[in-house]
Design goal:
Blueprint: H1 4-11, E1 17-22, E2 27-32, E3 35-39, E4 44-50, H2 54-60, E5 64-69, H3 75-83, E6 97-99, E7 105-107, E8 112-123, E9 127-138
Antiparallel strand pairs: 1-2, 1-5, 3-4, 4-9, 5-8, 6-7, 8-9
Protein name: Oxidoreductase
InterPro entries: Flavin_Rdtase-like_dom, NADH-dep_flavin_reductase, Split_barrel_FMN-bd
Domain Flavin reductase like: 9-160
Length: 165
Amino acid sequence: MDSPFDTFTALLDPPVHVVTAADGAELGGCLVGFAGQCSIDPPRFVVWISKANHTFGVASRSDTLAVHLIPQNRPELAELFGGRSGDSVDKFAGVAWTVGPSGVPLLTDAEACFVGRVIDRADWGDHVGFLLEPVGGRTPRTGTAAPDTSLTLHDVTDIKPGHPA
């Protein structure tokens, strides 16, 4: 039987994001389900990356991360960045991307993205939170994206994580 907390979180359907990083020698990118704006003034956003994820190591050595919204019509991006491990696959070989600030990869086919400077990290369990100060980004190509145009947690529940358990 599910706990009240499990039942509560099952009702949530937040957007998922692909977070990318570069440390000067290596690129990383992963699908994250734990992320959100955490301050208005000053603007701040936090992304939580699993310690088991290859991207965690790259992000830990990076001063800048990019956070991407994935459009509904590009589920293969979620599958690539969530279902494959950077330990064994070059995730960036088969996707279009450009180089952003500090070398961070910016996915061309993302609905929108922003780049954030890492200003703090918080280790609170099996994920580490990266607190970001926005420094740039790209808005949706078609103006303002409707809330239902991006992939959500319920859209990706069938993706088996690519990182080791």
